[in-house]
Amino acid sequence: MKPAAPARISPPPATDFFGTAGTEPSHREHRAPKVFGSVASVADRCALGVPCLGRIKHGISALTLAFALLASTTALPAAAPAAKPNIIFLLADDLGGGDLHSYGHPYARTPNLDSLARDGTRILQAYSTGSTCCPARTGLMTSKFPATYPTYPANGGFAERITITELLKQQGYATGHFGKWHIGPVQQPGTYGLDSIGSGEEESGNKKRGDDRGRDAHIYDDAIKFIERHRGGPFYVNVWGHISHHPVNPTDALVQRWSGLKVNDGDFPPQMHGKFNEVRQAGGDVDDAMRRYLADVESLDDGVGRLLKRLDQLGLRENTIVVFSSDQGADMTKAGNGGLRFNQMGFNGPVRGGKHTHWEGGVRVPWIVRWPGHVPAGRTDAQSVISGVDWLPTLCAITGTNINAADFDGEDTSAAWLGHGPHVRTKPLLWKTSSPGSDSLIREGPWKLVRPTRKNGAELALYDIVNDPAEKNNLVSKHPDIVKKLSAKVAAWVATLPKSYVKTDDPDR
Ligand SMILES: [Ca+2]
What we know:
This protein is α/β, with parallel strands linked by helices.
């Protein structure tokens, strides 16, 4: 049994989730990412796992490179095709952007997720495609913005749109999905090209809450078994847990690990003080609420640790891409219809808003990618702006899966993953909930424009996210030219969207 947490834990590493985000370069500083089977340079092909004459370092002379190329084609037998990398996607549910120790939480214990960050790269400006569960997962699976679907995908599925799992299935991948679903009415093997689908919503609730390993432990059990079955690879697996979605109610044994914790408001920025005050004013106990929340998160980290350990035991560490993220920002204590949710202590960092909002606190998410020997270890990328819609095209580039880029809303960000340089977007990020009258938003370069509808009476807003991630300063009057340009872009996008949406009773829409 782990010792109880001390009242105060040593300060976390430098908090740079939002604090040091740099400006996006004004031009593309890196070469276009290369893919399997393309005319990639030797260095790029090494980086992507293609066999080559050792890892060729930067700075190699042209003559040496030419010799190496000549040798590889004339003096040596043809190399066997490279083993395509396995892919494991660990997705938390409603986990805040500041909820990990490595993202600056003053108390959280997340050593296994922190090890992923230490052994891989964190991309700090990572976005969800929606501020709730299904819209966020829709962007990840299909590389289409959720507002492009006339029927809410949780109800109607992805219709004719292709998914990343179908594409990888066609490439010979074994495909699995374990945990939360929320992406369609049919959840059985074969859906979206998935060979194996584990327990979903119906298994997620009270049935599994008695497990002293945490409510997601069974999901990690199933994912580990899938990995064992397909250890010969290649495999792709979604491990989509329920932590830290409401209700947060871990077992007493888990909470006991945090018995010494007392919350000091000063350890958090003012954004969290509002949550604390709401709970206190309603007669709640912030210390108790925080202990329960952190116990829930710690049990997620335990599950990640078990999976990573098994990966090592199976000898799969080197050829497996592991990505960790959250579907959107942490929930607010007042969200939903059930009154105040004392235990929703998720921390979004020093920004505004949370789940159900399009403030940075609602759509900015952690993004960690580990791929030993390919993705730089211990690196923080503060400049690239990436999104859930980029998941599909990025993996297609890495696995040599041909797609027509114009069919998708995202773009290939593999160069940023591989450390070739910051990703510079050619397509803007766009948000809108599936309602004709809802606000629409765009992120392009450092700018985020909020275009309100007449209905809600909200104001047109322009924020410089790089310098003002907390969205405090509305710059509409200062930059009318940018407002005009971005307003036109987002209006043109809205004009392409469905004029009406099939109604859904999903409270999470
Ligand atoms: Ca969620």
